[in-house]
Amino acid sequence: MTYGPIDLFAIEFETDQLTGETLPELLELVKKEIIRVIDLVIIQKEDGHFKVLEMEELSPDVVIAFDPVVAEISGIIQVEDIDLIAEAMEDNTTAALLLIENLWAIKFGEAAVRSSGRLVMFDRIPFEVINETLEIFAQAESAAESAAEA
After folding, report:
1. Backbone φ and ψ of 49, nearest 5°
2. Mapping DSSP to helix (H, G, I), strand (E, B) and coil, where does residue 57 land?
3. Which one, of 6, 143, 146, lies nearest residue 76 by Cα?
4. What pLDDT is attached to residue 54?
């Protein structure tokens, strides 16, 4: 069986915002078979202490929301990963750790292999970095246009 690239996301929310706008977007990606969630861990942190929540410990609306998403609970996310994320979390927050397989890349990767291609480099640039860079470019372009008009 061929697998797509797998990403680990740790997304922190104010505790009462766990489902928010993010969950419907995640469900849409799963429904369209763009990604598959292969592991999920929920961490809550209060007063400097954290606890890992099992699915049955979550509120019913959260469980119902995540139920169609998780293809399998794989156990790939390790205690060390949880400890690292929990340490970085703010107090009174909840984090969802998601291990996501990028299904969209499987056929492309298989085609590359059949064509004797090989992956030379793969790097993910976070959206924050892209947005900040584009903002810097836009400001520089605006400054250049203002200078040309002067």
Report:
1. -115, 150
2. helix
3. 6
4. 66
Distance between CA atoms of residues 137 and 6, nearest Å: 31
pTM across the whole model: 0.70
Interior angle at CA 20, CA 80 and CA 123, nearest 5: 50
DSSP at 90: P
| Residue-wise pLDDT tens digits, 59-101 | 676 666 566 555 555 677 888 999 999 999 999 998 988 888 8
Rounded to 5 degrees, φ, ψ at 75 are: 75, 15
The position carrying tokens 């954290």 is 50
Residue type, 12: E
What digits encode the pLDDT tens for the residues 14-54? 866 665 678 788 888 888 889 888 888 889 999 999 999 76
* 3-class DSSP state of 83: helix
Q: Rounded to 5 degrees, what angle do the CA atoms 141, 145, 149 make?
A: 170
Length of the chain: 150
Q: Which helix (H) or strand (E) holds 13?
A: strand 6-14
Place of tokens 């809550």: 44
Give the residue carrying structure tokens 């246009």: 145
